[in-house]
Specification:
The chain is an alpha/beta fold. The protein contains eight helices and twelve strands. The chain is globular. About 40% of the residues are buried. Bound molecules: cytidine-5'-triphosphate (CTP) and magnesium ion.
Amino acid sequence: MASNVQPGIAVIVVAAGSGERLGYGMPKAKVPLGGEPLLVHALRGVLAAGVASQIVVAVPRGNDELRLLSETLTVETAGELRPDITVVDGGSTRSESVRAALESVAAGISAVLVHDAARALTPPEVFRRVAASLAEGALAVIPALAVVDTIKEVSPTGQDSAVVAPERVVSTPSRQQLRAVQTPQGFDLATLRNAHQAAGSLNPTQLAGITDDAMLVEALGTEVFVVRGSAHSLKITTRTDLLLAEALLEGQMAPRWVEG
Ligand code: CTP
Ligand code: MG
């Protein structure tokens, strides 16, 4: 594991969300999965990937428990070339948490992987695939899976047909070209910093529409490459997702070792 550490890569783990939709009354990063907090699983995946020389974790502002947990786990689990761990206070949106973490990226780092703690079971292979693409020269690279459902674009029916149905179909994009996007998303550090700086001029409505870091980089006109993600990389958002993650963790499909 330790021999895979590539100098110059930081992995940012955003774990500062409140977990409203999960409804545990605690930050999602603390919610237990198989008896351990989601953040522990997420950090284990990062450590097992062995691509990071620094890990920056964004925790909810002032949350000493998650801070300590991050620091202790990183020290206990990593090998000889263990990554430096930095814990920062996150912001009130995911983007703000990423920006807070970007400010603490160490000198000498040239690329970053931004990962959701909520994707607690992402297999190490996915981190390595993203890192490998960056090493081959990509300035931006995201993991994604083919979409299994047919996706429709819709609009509200409005007054004319509201009694018939609330929405109508506008178009059906070809599923062949659609991908469901995951994390870790990898970037050249300067490119991601520029993208976040440019986002400073967006209005609140535009900001609310920013759902991943790649969108900001796309807005700069930078080419974003796509590598294969994993079914184990599901984002734990609702109770149903947590149940599925428990099954993946305990069952025959243990995510660390089976590539989806
Ligand atoms: N996140 C963050 N800072 C925020 C909001 C979100 O670091 N202010 C992180 C979350 O911790 C999570 C990832 O971004 O790892 C994706 O967010 P999401 O799944 O929406 O998590 P929560 O915001 O915690 O959940 P909810 O929206 O249900 O409150
Ligand atoms: Mg959220």
